[in-house]
Q: What sequence folds into this?
């Protein structure tokens, strides 16, 4: 590995908890947030310090229907503006199924937002289990 990175993994389901563990296993500094009900996860109590992250990873989908961070493993509800306000302009944020509202909020804060669900590699690999589930 060239250099260990500083990641914040905020919200999500067991997939995000697994991502946090995999990143830590690869030697990165990982700060989970809003995953406290995940198995064996030691979470940050707030987003304080997230502005120093090389990358902030939000879940798939990033937001629930109410505009809150999609965080089924959290006992608390966290609104997306609260999460994004903790970040600095120019910071990289990766999220899945980015909607118009999140896109707008990120642009207003000068964040670099990347929708990993829009990547062809993920869409193709995701199609297989979805097709099997439908079948």
A:
């Amino acid at each position: 590995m060239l250099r260990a990175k500083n990641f914040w993994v905020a919200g999500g389901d067991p997939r995000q908890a697994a991502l946090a563990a995999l990143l830590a296993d690869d030697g990165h500094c990982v700060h989970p947030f809003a995953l406290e009900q995940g198995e064996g996860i030691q979470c940050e109590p707030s987003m304080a310090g997230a502005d120093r992250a090389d990358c902030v990873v939000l879940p798939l989908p990033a937001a629930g229907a109410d505009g809150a961070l999609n965080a089924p493993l959290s006992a608390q509800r966290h609104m997306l503006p609260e999460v994004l306000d903790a970040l600095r302009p120019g910071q990289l944020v990766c999220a899945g199924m980015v909607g118009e509202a999140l896109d707008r909020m990120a642009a207003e804060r000068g964040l670099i937002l990347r929708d990993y669900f829009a990547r062809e590699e993920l869409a193709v690999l995701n199609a297989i289990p979805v097709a099997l589930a439908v079948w």
Notes: The mean pLDDT is 91.
